Amino acid sequence: MVDRLSRAVYIFSAFFFLLFGCTVEQQFQISRAERFALLQLRSSLGLRAKEWPIKSDPCSGWVGIQCLNGSVSEINISGFRRTKRGSLNPRFSVDALRNLTFLASFNASNFALPGPIPEGLGLGVASLRVLDLRSCLINGSIPSTLGNLSSLVELYLSTNDLAGALPSSLGQLDDLSVLDLSRNALTGLIPVPFVDLRNLTVLDMSLNRLSGEIPPGIGRFSRLRYLNLSGNILSSSIPPQLGDLSSLVDLDLGSNSLSGSLPLDLRGLRNLQRLVVGDNLLSGQLPGNLFPSLTRLKFVVLGRNRFDGGVPDLLWSLPSLDFLDLSANNFTGMLPFNVSAGVNASSAVANISQNSFYGNITPVVRRFSFIDMSGNFFEGSVPISARGSTALGMNCLQNSSNQRSRTECATFYAERNLVFDNFGEPSAPPSPPPKSNKKDHKALILASVFGGVGLIALVIFIIVLCFICKRKTGTPNQRGISVGPVPAGGSPPPPGASLNFSNLGDAFTYQQILQATGEFNDANLMKNGHSGDLYRGLLEGGIPVVVKRVDLDSSAKKESYMSELDLFSRISHPRIVPFLGHCLENENEKFLVYKHMPNGDLPSSLFKKADTEDGLQSLDWITRLKIAIGAAEGLCYLHHECVPPLVHRDVQASSILLDDKFEVRLGSLSEVCAQEGEIHQNRITRLLRLPQTTDSGASGTPNAICAYDVYCFGKVLLELVTGKLGISSSSDAAMKDWLEMTLPYISIYDKELVTNILDPSLIIDEDLLEEVWAMAIVARSCLNPKATRRPLMRYILKALENPLKVVREDNSGSERLRTTSSRGSWNAAVFGSWRQSSIDVANVPASQKMEGPSSFKQSGTTGSQGSGPHGDANGNGHSSSARRHSREIFPEPLDEEEGTRE
Ligand SMILES: *[C@@H]1O[C@H](CO)[C@@H](O)[C@H](O)[C@H]1NC(C)=O
Ligand SMILES: *[C@@H]1O[C@H](CO)[C@@H](O)[C@H](O)[C@H]1NC(C)=O
Ligand SMILES: *[C@@H]1O[C@H](CO)[C@@H](O)[C@H](O)[C@H]1NC(C)=O
Ligand SMILES: *[C@@H]1O[C@H](CO)[C@@H](O)[C@H](O)[C@H]1NC(C)=O
Ligand SMILES: *[C@@H]1O[C@H](CO)[C@@H](O)[C@H](O)[C@H]1NC(C)=O
Ligand SMILES: *[C@@H]1O[C@H](CO)[C@@H](O)[C@H](O)[C@H]1NC(C)=O
Ligand SMILES: *[C@@H]1O[C@H](CO)[C@@H](O)[C@H](O)[C@H]1NC(C)=O
Ligand SMILES: *[C@@H]1O[C@H](CO)[C@@H](O)[C@H](O)[C@H]1NC(C)=O
User: Fold this and answer.
1) How far is the CA of 148 from the centre of ligand 5 (A)?
2) How confident is the model at residue 880 (pLDDT cuts 50, 70, 90)?
3) Residues 567 and 604 placed together within one structural domain of the fold
4) Are 367 and 339 in contact (CB under 8 A)?
5) Strand-pair partners of 647
6) Looking at the DSSP assignment, which residues form a beta bridge with residue 300?
7) Are 732 and 632 part of one and the same domain?
8) Could you tell me if the CB of 308 is within 6 A of ligand 8?
9) Ranges for the Protein kinase domain (predicted)?
10) CB of 395 within 8 A of CB of 360?
11) Looking at ligand 5, which residue's alpha carbon is closest to its atom 5?
């Protein structure tokens, strides 16, 4: 052997001598010891002459050998085959590596090394930085001596048959960056010393049998980009410390036995793209504030757990989302209507099957190229756009095959106090109240009533109605088509009038009320409302409720509870606070019981004391927009779907209640009354010198016209934009001053202006700023001092649903306005009023116009919009000068919807 060896060395050096004609062989030639070690390795592993020809120099002639300064630095025998003899008795025999003192990398992946990892491997090769033994048929346990490879940076042992516990000595590998132990049969706990592996960027222990908990110390791996612990039997909860992994891109904890909820603290995972926690025992609700921070998410798997509650809207509108699996949980709630702007229809795929989602299929499904919605409780018809790209089996959908039974659907909806559309057929005797999604139908009836009866009849009718409302005669209005008589003008119907108690929930006993509220314990008092005190309570089944206690002795509006009861007996809508029942058995005290709204009212949610250290936490913009849309939907229902139209008369932030998913439920309904007449008839009211109701939206006395609600809603919108609490609840001089100061910062010509009044706690990027701007514009048009010029609620809703169209497709887009009829009319409604209010504002004293900050910015985009004949008018940055040209900039869109406009 040694003979052959030295002969080879000789031949080799002779070769070099011939080639270069010099004797400096040292520089090129491998040391004797290293060459010897390589030959030993060659024979112990049974490598073939094809790759490692014995006669040539290893550094230059052997496949997979790299040398540096005459020392072997890398060995790559990946995928090599053994000699016939070698494969007869293959062994993991690599002792010779110990004499390769400069070896930095050993890659034997896909090379059969059956047997355990030799103890010695870890002791000799202190220089080793990369050890790749993937798919080598290794068995046995990992020797603790691997922890002596103190230079190791990458260690791959994946896809073998390694068993036993992980040696804690691996925790000594300070420089380790990649640790891949996946696809073995390792057992036991993840050793505590592992948390010292601070340099890890990749940690993959997936598909083993590791148990116990995920060590919270993993949170210290500040460089970790990839963490995969899936397919083990890890239990306990997800440690919130994982949220400290701010570099993490992939997190896979799927297919374990993890329990508890998804910690909100994961918000720190700012770079996360893949979140996989499917197939565990996780439960509870998804933290709504989690997803605004995880904006890079592409791949989300929450399926096959026990999550319940609603899905935060944001999850649907994550900008990069392309895979969403929520299947087989206990999620419930309605789909959001639409995803926020900036999310394009994409190739994304979603699976939300086997949950308890309900309500209509909304345009949100268009965000996905395919969505499996089967096994839920969706109702209504299937939109054309959703056909073909959805799996819809086992729901409650109209005209679809393979749906749940009528009873199953009805029971589901009834259990949740929801209205089921009964597959679009007239419902059975215990009839649910009219359903909300029949807007068009009702609008048509409404329109035909007005069209048909004619002006004179209308005028007479409205005069009569006004008298009814103001004189508190309480005579039921006979015109009702869908709602029927409603209490007019705050006047209750005569006590005991024909209330339909079958729609009024449960009749609670006084005893039950006492028990629920802890005998009206002061601790349970939520607020002293103007129509009664509100108490928090808990019904026997543990259902949280709010009880309104109406003290007939002291309350000024004693009978308002009757009108509220009457209202609830006639209306029902997902945007109205759920009414659970009443207790009328006492003479002097009456009680109304509502469902408790977990997120309270808007003022208490807008700024919440955060449990984290940074004090106050404010609602993000997307939630604010959602709340605005929700409230607008509720008001739309009252204004446009009830006949006669109902005026809320108490629209303010505290009337906007929020459920667990920040879905709006309108409350404070004790003031609701029928509208005195349609807006354009108010002139008649004025002519007849009836009590003043118009042009004084801010007067503070609730007015019985829808435009009054619109005005108040404008203040709520401003509150959402500016974060200034209390605007909508006051109408005093200070508030008016504030409005006068604020409104000039809202201009359709200058987006940047609005940043001066923006809530400083909002984190807004350029896209969102356009939405904020749009909402501010809508708010301003609602706040038109002239009631008749405020937009109708339904146009406000449209505008809020399409905020970017408010600001983008405005002026030069008149072409588009014409082609899209519906948008034409809402845009006209908002901007028509804008035109007017712009002129009004242009007339405010110059001193106020000048109040803008000195750093008055010129907006590039709006500048170009305003270009053309008046382009330079914007140049001086004075919005007021541009406003004068609004007539040219907003040409009257053609109104193709005259039939539905009143
Ligand atoms: C190679 O060896 C020479 C002299 O022995 C030394 O100066 C040089 O730093 C070495 N290079 C490397 C990369 O180790
Ligand atoms: C290792 O060797 C295999 C087989 O010769 C080759 O395909 C592969 O590219 C090598 N890998 C590296 C990292 O050098
Ligand atoms: C390492 O080299 C020394 C001599 O340099 C030799 O005695 C020893 O046997 C070698 N060890 C292995 C494992 O090759
Ligand atoms: C080892 O070799 C395989 C096959 O060429 C390659 O895919 C792998 O990346 C190598 N391992 C390392 C750590 O470079
Ligand atoms: C290997 O590491 C252990 C500590 O884990 C140490 O006690 C032992 O001495 C080391 N062995 C060698 C040969 O360095
Ligand atoms: C490991 O981390 C230490 C400090 O945390 C650092 O000094 C060292 O360079 C890192 N090693 C590698 C290979 O990144
Ligand atoms: C985690 O590992 C499993 C099995 O090794 C693999 O299927 C899965 O794709 C990995 N997860 C991620 C996020 O890469
Ligand atoms: C799902 O949630 C409902 C309440 O919303 C609960 O009654 C039911 O037990 C839950 N189902 C599971 C499987 O957790």
Assistant:
1) 6
2) very low
3) no
4) yes
5) 673
6) 275, 324
7) yes
8) yes
9) 520-805
10) no
11) 169
Residue 226: the pLDDT is 98
Stated pTM of the model: 0.55
Residue 708, domain CATH: 1.10.510.10
Q: How far is CA 687 from CA 465, 489, 684, 693, 774, in A?
A: 15, 20, 5, 12, 36
Same domain flag for 655 and 798: yes
Q: Does residue 673 sit within a domain?
A: yes
Q: Please report the pLDDT score of residue 811 as a whole number.
A: 46
The catalytic residue among 204, 650, 659, 759 is 650
Q: How many domains does the chain have?
A: 3
Q: Which residues pair with 601 in a beta bridge?
A: 657
| 677 against 255, higher pLDDT | 255
Domain boundary among 549, 573, 596: 596
Confidence of residue 702 (pLDDT cuts 50, 70, 90): low
- Could you tell me if residue 316 is inside a domain? no
pLDDT in tens, 748-788: 888 888 888 888 888 888 888 888 999 999 999 999 988 88
Q: Which of 85-94, 169-178, 505-514, 679-688 has the highest mean pLDDT?
A: 169-178
- Residues in CB range of 681: below 8 A, 6 or more apart: 458, 459, 462
- The helix/strand/coil state of 243 is helix
Residues 816 and 800 in one domain: yes
Q: What is the spatial distance between Cα 693 and Cα 706, in angstroms, rounded to a whole number? A: 11
Please tell me whether residues 610 and 585 are part of one structural domain.
no
Ligand 5: distance of its center to the CA of 144 in Å? 9
pLDDT in tens, 284-307: 999 988 888 898 999 999 999 999
* Among the ranges given (222-236, 582-596, 700-714), the one the predictor scored with the smallest mean pLDDT: 700-714
Domain holding 740, by residue range, is 599-898
CATH code, domain carrying 524: 3.30.200.20
Q: Give per-residue pLDDT as tens, 44-59.
A: 999 999 999 988 889 9
Same domain, 592 and 603: no
| pLDDT tens digits for range 621-659 | 888 999 999 999 999 999 988 888 889 988 999 899 998
Handedness of CA 863, 864, 867, 872 (dihedral sign): positive
Alpha helices in 250-374 (DSSP H): 313-316
Q: Which of 439, 552, 547 is nearest to 492 (CA)?
A: 552
- 650 tagged catalytic: yes
Cβ–Cβ < 8 Å for 428, 422: yes
C-alpha angle 476-477-480 in degrees, rounded to nearest 5: 125
**Could you say which ligand is closest to the alpha carbon of residue 543?**
8
Residue 820 tokens read as 């899209």
Residue 97 within any structural domain of the chain: no
Residue 228 alpha carbon, nearest atom of ligand 7: 1
User: Same domain for 371 and 396?
Assistant: yes
Contact 486, 570 (CB under 8 A): yes
**119 lies in some domain:** no
Closest-CA residue, ligand 2 atom 11, reads 76
Domain boundary among 559, 575, 596: 596
For residue 323, list its beta bridge partners: 299, 349
d(CA 776, CA 466): 33
